[in-house]
Write a structure and sequence with these properties.
The protein is α+β, with helices and mostly antiparallel strands and 251 residues long. It has three helices and ten strands, in the order βββααβαββββββ. Among the domains are: 28 residues; 122 residues.
Length: 251
């Protein structure tokens, strides 16, 4: 308890204004008070704030400095707020934080991209390879059908003989066995280019053997494996350059 110096009324220690006479009363400081007194000397720049700004600035040359900029920026702001005016550099700390967070976001995006892009590319190549194998099976079926329908010629001289035909056209010139794209001279489909050649003729001039290859347009990007098939119907593949009749058969 304490007394009002004006009217001598009894007051609690925490009362700052006497309720009896309205006089201002000093509040006693609590024992053990550890508050920071105001700094009376010249202010000093925060070294952590400056370091944060520098780390944020060099992010473009050393990407992982962005994380240091963020950590130092937060530490600097904390020190400045507790320094009671002794430390300055809030602007530098905020600048370091901004550039640091931009850097951390950029690095995160780059890391995610570095992980995701190869996986996407591999998935795309696998899909292209599956499409190429499916096209080779379609071609083998169409080529056998053509040889059956046109026994006077055997297998066609070109893939164009398999394409769509106009009404009334000779079936052995345009057999309408595959879609227009696959019935072109050297078709490109889903990242693969197809090459067809009549390999062997009998005594009557009928084509009795053929070779059909499917190679990635851009090896390593549109596909990894090269494929080959012939009149046997077996599809073969190679990872080292073009496939042929001696390459490993596809399981």
């Amino acid at each position: 308890m304490k007394q009002c110096p004006n009217c001598s009324g009894n007051l609690a220690d925490f009362v700052a204004l006497c309720p009896y006479c309205g006089a201002a009363v000093a509040v006693a400081q609590a024992p053990g008070f550890t508050g920071q007194p105001e700094w009376n000397g010249p202010p000093q720049n925060s070294g952590k704030a400056l370091a944060s700004l520098i780390c944020g600035a060099v992010f473009f040359f050393w990407p992982f400095s962005a994380l240091a900029a963020v950590i130092l920026g937060h530490l600097a702001l904390s020190d400045i707020s507790r320094s009671a005016g002794r430390l300055t550099g809030r602007g530098m700390a905020i600048g370091g934080l901004v550039t640091g967070y931009i850097g951390v976001s950029t690095v995160s995006i780059l890391i995610i991209a570095a992980i995701a892009i190869p996986n996407i590319l591999r998935s795309k190549m696998a899909a292209n390879e599956a499409s190429a194998v499916g096209s080779l099976r379609t071609y083998n079926t169409a080529l056998v059908s053509y040889a059956t329908e046109c026994p006077s010629q055997g297998y066609p001289a070109s893939l164009t003989f398999l394409g769509p035909s106009a009404a009334g056209a000779d079936k052995c010139v345009r057999a309408d066995l595959v879609e227009a794209l696959m019935g072109s001279e050297m078709p490109v489909k889903n990242g693969y280019r197809f090459y067809y050649a009549a390999e062997s003729y009998d005594a009557s001039g009928h084509v009795v053997k053929y070779a059909l290859a499917a190679d990635p347009v851009t090896p390593g990007t549109t596909g990894m494996r090269h494929f080959f098939t012939d009149e046997s119907g077996v599809i073969r593949f190679s990872r080292r350059g073009g496939a042929d009749a001696h390459s490993e058969p596809l399981q």
